[in-house]
Amino acid sequence: MLRTVGQALFSSGLQSPPYTTQDKQQGQDYEVRTYAATKYMSTTVSGKEWDPCMSTGFRRLFNYIQGTNKSKTSVAMTTPVTCRVEPPEEPAGEADVTVSFYLPEEHRENPPEPENADVFVEQRKEMTVYVSTYGGFANEKSKREELQKLMESLRRDGVPFVDKPFYAVGYDSPFKLFNRRNEVWVLRSLPEQQQ
Hints:
By secondary structure, the chain is an alpha+beta fold.
């Protein structure tokens, strides 16, 4: 009950993907969540810096939900916006950043077809993630710092995780000035390996 109330308060009443949490262990400074398999509307942008990729991806998806789709249908905003970051193999290479909006219930079975060929429906498998939550206006520096802190905590605790891809996650409109909620997610294992 309290968990459901907390999700509703944090998400400002917008639909969010369902998940369950494990009880925190003593001294644990992160949350463990398992997200159910579900659908997202996604787009992938490549670049050397995450923030411009995330902005481009967000704009594409925002246009889609505003009705720039083949049926001219508006789709409700959901939360959070997830950004899966696949770091480059080479230090000078480009990261692939997949920005995603959770599809609301009324459009999940039959989402409006995108006009933009770079926007696609993603069927995400069930996945378990380690989550670190932080406030303020997130930027690439703060995302990297929070990610490093989370990975250090996971190494400290000797728990299994994969270091890439990882997720940078935002819950708030850019117009919200206070009590902002951001997260970084690290996968326990790749989704096809999770039981």
